[in-house]
Automatic annotation (TrEMBL):
InterPro entries: DNA_methylase_N6_adenine_CS, MT-A70-like, SAM-dependent_MTases_sf
Taxonomic placement: Eukaryota, Fungi, Fungi incertae sedis, Mucoromycota, Mucoromycotina
GO molecular function list: mRNA m(6)A methyltransferase activity; nucleic acid binding
One Pfam family per UniProt: MT-A70
Protein name in the entry: mRNA m(6)A methyltransferase
Family named by the database record: Belongs to the MT-A70-like family.
Organism: Lichtheimia corymbifera JMRC:FSU:9682
Entry keyword set: Coiled coil, Methyltransferase, S-adenosyl-L-methionine, Transferase
Record Gene3D superfamilies: Vaccinia Virus protein VP39 (3.40.50.150)
Amino acid sequence: MSREGTPSSDTLIDIDNFDENEVTDLGLKNLLKREIELQLLIDALQTEISQLEERINGKDQGDEEDELDDQDLEEYEAPEWCVPIKANVMSFDWDSLAAEVQFDVIVADPPWQLATHAPTRGVAIAYQQLPDICIEEIPIPKLQKNGFIFIWVINNKYAKAFELMERWGYTYVDDITWVKQTVNRRMAKGHGYYLQHAKETCLVGKKGEDPPNCRHSVGSDVIFSERRGQSQKPEELYELIEELVPDGKYLEIFGRKNNLRDYWVTIGNEL
C-alpha cells in the first residue's frame, strides 16, 4: 500500500483480464502449500523438542543412555577389515570406485530434507540435510549391475524413495521394519506429527540378476533391536544382508563410525 492507503503498482489487478475463479484457486493453492510447509516444520520442531527433553531428563525410567557422545565416537576403534572412506558423497569420485568394483548390496541412509526451514533433521544429527535433487544425483547405477539396494526412509519420503528406485533401475521387492527398543526391551517411542514413532523402515530394491551365492527366504522382515547411537542402525540388518548374499561386496553410503563393519566399504563425511 502507498502512504495514502491506495494499492501500490505491484498489487494492482488488471480489471480487464480479471478472473475471480483463477485468483481464488491460486490463493487456495498458496495456502495449501504454506500449510504443508508449516506441518513439516512443526514435525521437525517436535522431534527436536523430544530429543532435548531426553537430554534434559537423562535416563528414561532407569534405561541406560542410548546415544554415543562425541568422546565415545572419538575413542571408537574401527573393525580391522572394514574399508572406511571419509568423503563428501556429492563430490566423491564415484567413477573411479565403479571402475574398480561392482557391489552386490548397497545400503543408503540419506539425510532426507524435512523442510527448507529446518537446517538439520534433529539437534543431535551432524549431517546437513540434502535436497531430493542432490540425492538423485548420486550415480547408483554405475556402482551395481546386479544386486540389491536397501534405502532407509522417513515418513514423508516414501514416494520419493520409490521414485528413486525406479530412476536408478530397481524394482521394489521387500521392506524391513525396525522396531526400536530400550535396553529394558520396552518400545522406544519418539514424537511424530500424528502418531508416536517407534520404528524405522528400510525399503529393498533389486536390479538385474541375483548376485552370486544369493539365498532366498532368509531372516525376517521385522527387526526388534535396541536403539543405540546417533543414526546407528541395528546390527541385525547387516547380519541379514550377509545371510542374504554371503561373501558379497557390500557398500554403505552416508555411513558413520558406529556403522563400520568388517568387509564393508563405508563412505560418508562423518567417518
